[in-house]
Amino acid sequence: MEPDRERLVETVKAAVSSVGSETALLQTTVEFIDRFSDGYNWTGFYMMRSDHLEVGPYLGPATEYTRIELNRGICGAAATRKKTVTVDDVQSDPRFLACSLSTRSEIVVPLMDGDQCFGEIDIDSNQPAFFTDQDRMMLEAIAEVIVARLRQLRQS
Q: Is there a smaller number of Cβ atoms within 10 Å at the N or the C end of the chain?
């Protein structure tokens, strides 16, 4: 992973180590991730709530998709598959739920604790094919940090 991306992972890890709630954890993380790139136009979390995803803290334009069923949209696909999904051209992907007509690419990284999906990081870009393998690796590393802290918060 590139040094700037490694630095972001370490910054998030340090920043969230002492947060006292899930909401504060997610809000702090979304702020750091969003500042990382001007190409991120919507940065946020969707969290698992029984059999669906609910929007959590995010930065970007308002979304009408505050609740997403599993297997619906790119977010639902990532949570169901339990794997990162990167779409270079959302307009050619029939799963895409158009929150913004300017969105061109999207990456969704599930927050996995073993086989359990806690939620996911979702980022949209107005640029086609914006997300790289370096972005994926960075976001997957941040997801691991978030899951570890969520586990601690949920046990206390």
A: C
